[in-house]
Design a protein that fits this description.
It is built from eleven helices and 15 strands. α6 (about 175-180) links the parallel β4 (about 160) and β5. It is an alpha/beta fold. The protein has helices at about 5-20, 70-80, 100-110, 125-130, 135-150, 175-180, 255-270, 285-290, 290-305, 315-325, 330, and strands at about 55-65, 90-95, 115, 160, 185, 190, 200-205, 220-225, 230, 235, 240, 280, 310, 345-355, 360-365. It has two domains: about 50-330, Glycoside hydrolase/deacetylase (TIM Barrel); about 345-380, no CATH class. Helix content is about 30%, strand content about 15%. Strands 1, 2, 3, 12 and 13 form a five-stranded parallel sheet that branches. Strands 4-5-8-7 form a four-stranded mixed sheet.
């Protein structure tokens, strides 16, 4: 046997041994797994609250790069929007790096909206993510924490969430990176089984009961890592869909009122049930392509912003409440959060050479310009 064959076998054995070191998760023990640090996967309302005493959280989220085109939609839908208690309504942006305008990221952060991560590369094919190792996820997301904080000039500790490209799970890798960094939760994992009643957020200290729609799903016991389930919608044929723009049987795209009714019907399944967080998960292109869908969404948001026990929040605010659940009356009377403003020393950069495409890029940042276009293994473009 030649030396390089022996070396290859040794490498494979080493990798296998490292993977084997991850303890397989046991069935959740509710007596051991206690809030605020641990929660079993369950449809039970945190704090054993009754539905009528539970805040109904609504999470509006957008994926991909933030730029001068889609910011118009975000401003139109979100500017000056408040919940019934007078506090600013939230939304979460899962931001990928390529073509992102970091000055606009800074603006969204300063409005009190959540900035989360959607990877540096968002590369294809989907198998890249399906087969992603811990090291791959660390390069894509662990390094993106510093990249986002640097170029948008926002605090690292404000960045808590992750959504995988294509909602492609990586097994244990993503949650290992979350556990070992300042991140806190993943919102990539759809559930079709637990939509009525809905699955509340939980930790991975023990085995999950959630259905695995896009395998591989995590199997290990991983502490300090929350799952924020993407509870599926039902389209007009009753077929499940995780992202709104992936639903097949939908109302006419030119009928805003029909879309209002469609959104409301999916919302009411949560509101009249166990009040698990309701998600409106979408890509902005869908709203700009179909303006009447955007009008239907705006009408829906206007309606829920008037309901005293419904709160449109950042996704990380849901995790915060689950850790320390309080009745809706107490929650509604809390002082509003006022975001600390992050300054932006604006710089327009480019052309910047990029090794991954051999193209030139331009960047709008809140920092000094990088030397080259930032990418994997060089997230700051040094």
């Amino acid at each position: 046997m030649q030396w390089y064959t022996v070396l290859a076998f040794c490498f494979i054995a080493l990798v296998g041994a490292q993977e084997a070191e991850l303890p397989l998760a046991d069935i959740c023990d509710a007596e051991t797994c206690q809030l605020p640090d641990c929660r079993c996967s369950s449809t039970q309302i945190p704090g054993n609250l009754q539905p009528r005493d539970t805040p109904q959280f609504v999470m509006v989220t957008f994926d991909d790069a933030i730029n001068v085109i889609n910011i118009e939609t975000y401003n139109e839908l979100l500017n000056n929007r408040k919940n019934s208690n007078g506090c600013t309504a939230g939304a979460t942006f899962y931001v990928s790096h390529e073509y992102t305008n970091y000055q606009l990221v800074n603006e969204l952060y300063n409005k009190g909206l959540e900035i989360a991560l959607h990877s540096i590369s968002h590369r294809t094919p989907q198998t890249y993510w399906k087969e992603a190792t811990y090291e791959t996820v660390k390069r894509e997301f662990g390094d993106q924490i510093g990249q986002m904080a640097h170029f948008a000039n926002i605090p690292k500790d404000s960045i808590k969430g992750v959504r995988m490209p294509f909602l492609q799970m990586t097994g244990n890798s993503t949650f290992q990176v979350i556990s070992e960094t300042s991140l806190e939760y993943d919102c990539s994992w759809p559930t079709v089984t637990y939509k009525n009643p809905g699955l509340w957020p939980y930790t991975l200290d023990f085995s999950s009961t959630q259905d695995c729609v896009v395998p591989p799903c995590p199997s290990a016991a991983i502490s300090n890592s929350w799952v924020l389930p993407m509870i599926a919608w039902e389209d007009l044929n009753g077929t499940a869909c995780a992202m709104v723009d992936s639903c097949f049987a939908v109302p006419d795209h030119s009928d805003a009122d029909a879309w209002f009714e469609f959104i409301s019907a999916n919302f009411e399944r949560h509101y009249k049930g166990n009040r698990a967080p309701f998600g409106f998960f979408i890509h902005e292109w869908y709203l700009s392509t179909y303006p009447q869908v955007k009008l239907g969404l705006a009408k829906f948001l206007d309606s829920i912003n008037k309901i005293p026990d419904v709160f449109m929040v950042n996704s990380k605010d849901v995790i915060e409440w689950v850790k320390n659940p309080v009745p809706v009356d107490e929650y509604a009377n809390r002082p509003c959060k006022v975001p600390a403003q992050a300054p932006c020393s604006r710089a327009s950069c480019g052309p910047l050479s990029a090794e991954h495409t051999q193209m030139s890029y331009y960047m709008q940042v809140c920092s000094k310009c990088p030397r080259v276009y930032p990418w994997l293994d060089n997230p700051l473009g040094a």
